[in-house]
């Protein structure tokens, strides 16, 4: 066999995202390495896998679609060898695919993954950051092993294990009148311009906070990018709502933001691990879930500031 599993993984990543640039970002591998792997596979297999669109990414050819499905099966079977070896030797080794909610990944995953691989040196974690719909879809198709996400619309067939609660809070600029208040009410926030983090399910959660109290927020603008929202807030465009607690109190442009508790008893977001139900977990997956239980709690979440006292 004159191709490697690594080359197949690079091809799979490019095929799934339709871009060498995005595949490079997903795998933390240089773009030339991915391009070389794809070219090698095309020469070895004697088929064209992609149509290259100038400045517009890639699209799979009909042959590419068929080979992508087979490549996924080959990689999955190869990973199964590690799982079988782990069961026999009682070692924790091999590669695990972990998806994380896009708003959680930058804070939680670096420390969590680093400590896991330090504890189990013969393991490797493939990381994916996406919204809830993508994570649950990939989980149900067994394309990722574990998702670290919120308890929002968990479907039948997926098991969710809660780890920590994240209450909602307001985020304002340091010059905002609310910045020095011990807490703020939803009624007060409803009078202010809202810079909304526009992500599926999270959006519904934030709206429900107001609707449950008969209030209507005043939406100034929306963005699906957390850093854009934080920077707009830091520049005084309005406030936003959040559950995550980044350790940095600065936006990307260096301006400071302030977290303010919301008074009242409101449903928090719950972070947890999601896995396929009714399926025997490998020793690797069990070890990773145990690591999550030991590393994440309402008192401490990797990458996040302490909860309000």
Automatic annotation (TrEMBL):
Keyword terms, alphabetized: DNA-binding, Transcription, Transcription regulation
GO cellular component terms, A-Z: protein-DNA complex
Keyword Lipid biosynthesis tagged: no
GO MF entries: DNA binding; DNA-binding transcription factor activity
UniProt-listed InterPro entries: LysR_HTH_N, LysR_subst-bd, WH-like_DNA-bd_sf, WH_DNA-bd_sf
Domain HTH lysR-type: 1-61
Family: Belongs to the LysR transcriptional regulatory family.
Name under which the protein is recorded: LysR family transcriptional regulator
Organism: Acetobacter tropicalis
């Amino acid at each position: 066999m004159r191709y490697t599993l690594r080359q197949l993984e690079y091809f799979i990543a490019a095929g799934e995202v339709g871009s060498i640039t995005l595949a490079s970002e997903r795998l933390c591998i240089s773009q030339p390495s991915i391009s070389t792997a794809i070219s090698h596979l095309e020469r070895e297999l004697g088929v064209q896998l992609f149509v290259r669109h100038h400045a517009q990414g890639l699209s799979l050819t009909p042959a590419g679609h068929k080979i992508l499905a087979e490549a996924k099966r080959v990689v999955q079977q190869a990973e199964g060898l590690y799982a079988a070896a782990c069961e026999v030797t009682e070692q924790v080794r091999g590669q695990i695919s972990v998806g994380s909610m896009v708003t959680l990944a930058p804070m939680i995953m670096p420390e969590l993954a680093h400590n896991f691989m330090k504890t189990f040196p013969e393991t490797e974690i493939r990381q994916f950051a996406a919204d809830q719909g993508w994570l649950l879809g990939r989980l149900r198709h067994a394309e990722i092993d574990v998702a670290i996400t919120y308890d929002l619309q968990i479907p039948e067939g997926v098991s969710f294990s809660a780890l920590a609660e994240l209450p909602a809070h307001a985020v304002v600029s340091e010059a905002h009148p609310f910045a020095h208040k011990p807490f703020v009410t939803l009624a007060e926030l409803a009078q202010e311009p809202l810079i909304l983090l526009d992500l599926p399910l999270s959006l519904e959660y934030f709206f429900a906070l107001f609707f449950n109290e008969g209030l209507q927020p005043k939406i100034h603008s929306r963005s699906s990018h957390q850093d854009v929202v934080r920077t707009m807030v830091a520049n005084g465009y309005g406030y936003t709502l959040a559950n995550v607690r980044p350790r940095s109190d600065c936006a990307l442009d260096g301006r400071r933001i302030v977290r303010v508790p919301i008074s009242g008893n409101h449903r928090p977001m719950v972070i947890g691990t999601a896995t396929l139900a009714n399926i025997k977990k490998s020793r690797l997956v069990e070890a990773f879930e145990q690591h999550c239980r030991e590393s994440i709690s309402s008192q401490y979440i990797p990458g996040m500031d302490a909860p309000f006292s």
